[in-house]
Inverse folding.
């Protein structure tokens, strides 16, 4: 069995363990769940160390027949992009469990169910990035909706039921389109090469351009809903306002990346010609997302709504980088996915602590926190600096790579996208000013600063943001061969410098 | 090129010290300021050692290099973290570490009553580290890290007392204005990579001859935009006055001597771009000329001593930018003025801080008067800085500013007359507003009430002021004697050895002209402010005065053209998102809901049940197929 399968299965086994534990001990449930996720993290680190960085082909592959009559296989394997996304997942799960220690206690169901849902989700998140069988990918893509639906609807706040449904309906719409495209691709494959859902085999199909465009759109719309691209984004702020901080981190930080990951893995790899056809439109939508998300973020009064809209802006950068189809654009976009995961985690977790102490998520209800809760204020400030891509933090590297990679092919798009950095400064600093600076808002005088558990949860996130700001090479070295592979599939090369030597 | 392993310590030491002071928290309160000051002093020692070592080497072997590690390597985008110390950067390194250390020493006393002194020193160290990275980075991307790092330090220090809302606003304004400049720097780096396939200084310089003029002009324009943001040049100047919200030592170090001059560094470092694009060079010239007059005019109407000095800084940097716009003959004079300005303006800011320290933080010069009698050392050191900035021989500014005016006139044709005239006019206005500051603050009759007890500041504060005053007196002469500065920088900025082709005016004429207009400016200010200074600024003034008092309407303009339309646009988008885009979604959802209500009679229909059942159904179907085929 491949180490990837071990990684997938362990949280699932953990779920069984959760229900075997003696009744009534919530702390034990929490400790056990965190323990399982930490072991999974350790396994993923072992996997990363064994990963061969110079190779662009899938590694740790495993393939078993699943539904033989349709050629469906349980087939997994990872390249560099999948590796870093899986690592991000295994790092984030224990952190959000530790950070959201008390989140499970006000839910509709018991904490046990909450932790079971998150561990099931972890299995699926790893599985979705590792799947190399299109059908397997689709199944997990859809199945992931279920734990998230229950996490929002059962443990969220405010209008959680409506938010959960909006999320489900949107995703379902995308999922159905994708299902149609998956079946369509399968039919073509059956005629040309026999029954298979293997992504590598499918990438060699000859599809007439009208059909290819339709299939591309089926996948793309599903992914553009997942990693919301304007104008398919409105479920995200609603979900972020209602979900618990831990759920929000996993939803925006990891699950939404399945969308952008899918664009690279399936849209471009399977349908390169259609990808070229739709590139201008997608670039325009990306730019709209960048600016529109930023403007909406500036206009938010709810701190979680703000983080959601900054994410929409950032997803715009990621899709821009992907469809620029240059080395810098693709590697930058993949790195951006990871950095956004950590930077959004920092924002949601600290905002969650601020909100639970204050009993409000309104930005205007905070104020003067710098003097009352300095450590919490600093953590929020650093998360904010990461959101505006300050050089020295990892998000700068990815944002700059995306922009420079876009500029070499589409200078105008890069120029428009670059103006987003001014808006980012505004949405971050306005929020910092309102919530951390100024005189202490009445009601905030006696808020408590971060406790040890919270400090331990946030410290690794900040350390990661700083470390990879100066040393992004370990990640980019892993991503580069995979980006190169994607470009080869798409039949493109990097533009050459204009001024010849 | 020679390599060295010492350069990294210049950055690593203050960075490390800053991190330690911040992470240790209150434990370090007792000794944090001492550590920070010692670290700053040790960077100065390293800089001095490197400087003397550099002087020992011959002209073309002076630059040294240190390659640290591969920072980013993606496709052909390959950027190393590596440092370059050459004749140009050593000037800045000495200025930053020297003035920086003096200001650390000064701040020990100035901030002694502040609860957060340790944090203040941590930020100062962070600033020194970032500023050194800015001038030592050997590529535009390395520079960018320092560039934003100093912006961050500046933001943190302007907002050091951010519990006061307007101070927090000032900090944000500075950051955002700088970010507009950063768009320029980002795009410049992208242009450089797209054109030359590299973003290192040497790589871009080597590629310039192969690039089109249009590309070079675009590159130059973006670099100028970046410089305008960081150096408070027109049209991105509006943040500097508000930045005076920061503690006065910060104004002296960051917003006078070092950070705000980074734009001059950027343009001088990129001389090869501007030398190859006359259009970009002219833009630089125009921005410099406008700003030097803009800042000088604003300076005439300020009653707040720090804001008067800030307007002056803007104007003096305008001179430097103008000089860089004059091409190879101008760069050395720009740097020379930058260094002399570093001495006299930092000195005067520290003097202003000393006055404020003795006057319960009063900044309104109308409430000063006759302070020279009670604070003699402050008055004398400030006075020497004053003589330097207005350009009285043999003080520092005389040498550095006259050279700029002279070179401007020699630029030839109408251009030379216009920029030379602007520079000359600026000198007259400078003499006026600086004399006004001196007269209002140190001479005349006392206008402060009995609650203020102005007294000379402690030695930790006046010793740095004395050292800077010595620099204000002697540095110009030293830099100018035997064309020391011009020759020192020539291998970097003027390798071809270009000189003024023809002299429009001989140096002596220029000096006499300048002294003449300065005398007029001084005389008017003395006559006007010697007596009868009202405690409040008079209201019955001309419309022109009112406009100048409102900073030539810079904030009104930005407010109407940028801020308010931006806010309107934000409101529009928020409304659109809620009502239109999400409205369509809700509309579709509503239709489903209505039909499901109708269906409820035969089935128990909630949309979410359907939705969930659908997902589960799909999965169940798959499971069934699987089991059947087994």
């Amino acid at each position: 069995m491949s180490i990837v399968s071990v990684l997938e299965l362990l949280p699932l086994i953990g779920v069984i363990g959760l229900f075997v534990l003696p009744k009534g001990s919530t702390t034990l449930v929490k400790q056990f769940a965190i323990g399982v996720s930490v072991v999974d993290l350790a396994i993923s680190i072992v996997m990363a160390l064994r990963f061969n960085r110079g190779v662009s082909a899938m590694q740790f592959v495993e393939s078993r027949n699943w539904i033989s009559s349709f050629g469906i296989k349980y087939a997994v394997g990872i390249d560099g992009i999948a590796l870093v996304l899986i690592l991000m997942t295994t790092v984030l799960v224990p952190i959000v469990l530790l950070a959201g220690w008390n989140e499970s206690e006000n839910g509709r169901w018991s904490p046990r169910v909450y932790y079971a849902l998150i561990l099931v989700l972890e299995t699926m998140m790893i599985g979705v990035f590792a799947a190399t069988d299109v059908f397997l990918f689709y199944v997990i893509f859809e199945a992931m909706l279920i734990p998230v639906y229950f996490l929002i609807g059962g443990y969220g706040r405010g209008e959680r039921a409506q938010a959960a449904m909006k999320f489900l309906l949107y995703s379902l719409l995308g999922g159905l389109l994708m299902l149609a495209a998956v079946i369509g691709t399968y039919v073509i494959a059956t005629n040309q090469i026999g029954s298979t859902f293997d992504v590598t085999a499918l990438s060699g199909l000859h599809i007439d351009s009208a059909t290819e465009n339709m299939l591309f759109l089926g996948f793309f719309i599903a992914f553009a809903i997942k990693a919301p691209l304007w104008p398919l984004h409105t479920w995200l702020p609603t979900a972020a306002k209602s979900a618990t901080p831990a759920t929000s981190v996993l939803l925006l930080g990891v699950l939404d990346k399945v969308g952008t990951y899918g664009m690279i893995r399936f849209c471009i790899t399977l349908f390169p010609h259609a990808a070229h056809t739709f590139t201008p439109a997608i670039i325009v939508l990306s730019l709209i997302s960048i600016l529109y998300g930023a403007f909406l973020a500036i206009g938010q009064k709810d701190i979680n709504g703000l983080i959601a809209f900054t994410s929409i802006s950032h997803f715009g950068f990621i899709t821009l980088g992907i469809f620029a189809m240059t080395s810098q654009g693709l590697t930058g976009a993949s790195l951006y996915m990871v950095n956004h995961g950590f930077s959004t985690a920092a924002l949601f977790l600290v905002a969650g602590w601020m909100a639970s102490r204050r009993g409000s998520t309104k930005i205007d209800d905070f104020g003067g926190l710098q003097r009352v809760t300095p450590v919490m204020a600093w953590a929020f400030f650093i998360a904010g600096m990461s959101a505006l891509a300050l050089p020295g933090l990892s998000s700068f590297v990815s944002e700059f790579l995306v922009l420079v990679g876009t500029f070499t092919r589409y200078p105008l798009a890069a120029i428009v996208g670059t103006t987003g950095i001014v808006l980012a400064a505004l949405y971050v600093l306005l929020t910092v000013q309102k919530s951390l600076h100024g005189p202490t808002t009445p009601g905030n005088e006696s808020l408590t600063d971060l406790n040890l558990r919270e400090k331990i949860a946030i410290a690794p996130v900040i350390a990661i943001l700083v470390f990879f700001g100066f040393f992004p090479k370990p990640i980019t070295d892993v991503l580069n061969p995979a980006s190169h592979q994607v470009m080869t599939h798409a039949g493109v090369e990097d533009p050459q410098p204009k001024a010849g030597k | 090129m020679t390599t060295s392993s010492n350069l990294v310590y210049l950055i690593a030491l203050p960075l490390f010290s800053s991190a330690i002071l911040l992470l240790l928290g209150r434990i370090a309160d007792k000794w944090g300021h001492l550590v920070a000051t010692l670290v700053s002093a040790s960077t100065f020692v390293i800089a001095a050692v490197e400087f003397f070592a550099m002087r020992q080497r011959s002209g073309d072997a002076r630059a040294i290099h240190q390659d640290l590690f591969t920072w980013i390597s993606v496709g052909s985008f390959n950027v190393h973290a590596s440092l370059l110390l050459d004749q140009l950067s050593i000037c800045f390194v000495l200025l930053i570490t020297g003035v920086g250390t003096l200001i650390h020493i000064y701040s020990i006393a100035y901030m002694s009553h502040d609860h957060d002194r340790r944090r203040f020193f941590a930020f100062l160290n962070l600033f020194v580290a970032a500023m050194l990275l800015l001038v030592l980075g050997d590529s535009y991307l390395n520079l960018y890290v320092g560039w934003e790092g100093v912006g961050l330090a500046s933001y943190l220090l302007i907002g050091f007392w951010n519990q006061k809302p307007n101070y927090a606003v000032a900090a944000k304004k500075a950051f955002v204005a700088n970010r507009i400049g950063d768009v320029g720097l980002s795009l410049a780096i992208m242009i450089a990579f797209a054109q030359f396939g590299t973003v290192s200084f040497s790589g871009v310089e080597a590629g310039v001859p192969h690039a089109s003029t249009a590309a070079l002009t675009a590159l130059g324009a973006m670099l100028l935009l970046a410089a305008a943001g960081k150096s408070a040049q027109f049209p991105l100047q509006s943040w500097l006055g508000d930045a005076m919200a920061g503690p006065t030592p910060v104004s002296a170090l960051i917003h006078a001597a070092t950070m705000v001059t980074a734009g001059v560094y950027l343009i001088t470092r990129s001389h090869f771009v501007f030398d190859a694009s006359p259009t970009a060079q002219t833009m630089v010239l125009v921005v410099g000329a406008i700003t030097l007059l803009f800042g000088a005019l604003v300076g005439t109407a300020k009653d707040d001593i720090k804001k008067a000095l800030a307007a002056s800084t803007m104007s003096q940097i305008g001179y430097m930018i103008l000089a860089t716009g004059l091409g190879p003959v101008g760069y050395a004079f720009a740097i020379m003025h930058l260094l002399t300005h570093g001495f006299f303006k930092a000195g005067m800011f520290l003097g202003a801080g000393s006055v404020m320290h003795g006057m319960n933080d009063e900044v309104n010069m109308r409430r000063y008067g006759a302070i020279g009698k009670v604070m003699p050392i402050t008055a004398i050191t400030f006075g020497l800085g004053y003589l330097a900035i207005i350009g009285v021989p043999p003080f520092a500014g005389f040498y550095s500013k006259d050279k700029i005016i002279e070179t401007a006139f020699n630029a030839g044709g109408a251009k030379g007359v216009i920029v030379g005239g602007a520079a000359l006019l600026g000198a007259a206005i400078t003499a006026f507003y600086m004399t006004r500051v001196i007269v209002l603050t140190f001479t005349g009759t006392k206008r402060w009430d009995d609650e203020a007890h102005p007294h000379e500041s402690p030695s930790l504060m006046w010793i740095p002021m004395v050292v800077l005053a010595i620099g204000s007196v002697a540095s110009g002469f030293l830099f100018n004697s035997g064309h020391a500065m011009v020759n020192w920088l020539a291998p970097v900025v003027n390798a071809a050895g270009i000189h003024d082709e023809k002299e429009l005016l001989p140096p002596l004429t220029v000096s006499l002209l300048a002294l003449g207009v300065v005398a007029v400016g001084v005389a008017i200010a003395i006559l006007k402010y010697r007596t009868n200074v009202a405690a409040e600024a008079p209201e019955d003034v001309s419309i022109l005065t009112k406009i100048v008092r409102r900073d030539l309407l810079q904030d009104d303009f930005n407010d109407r053209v940028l801020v308010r339309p931006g806010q309107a646009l934000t409101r529009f988008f928020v409304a659109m998102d809620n009502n239109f885009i999400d409205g369509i979604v809700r509309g579709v959802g509503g239709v489903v809901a209505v039909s499901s209500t109708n269906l409820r009679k035969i089935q128990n229909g909630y949309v979410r049940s359907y939705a969930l059942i659908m997902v589960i159904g799909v999965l169940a179907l798959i499971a069934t197929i699987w089991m059947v085929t087994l």
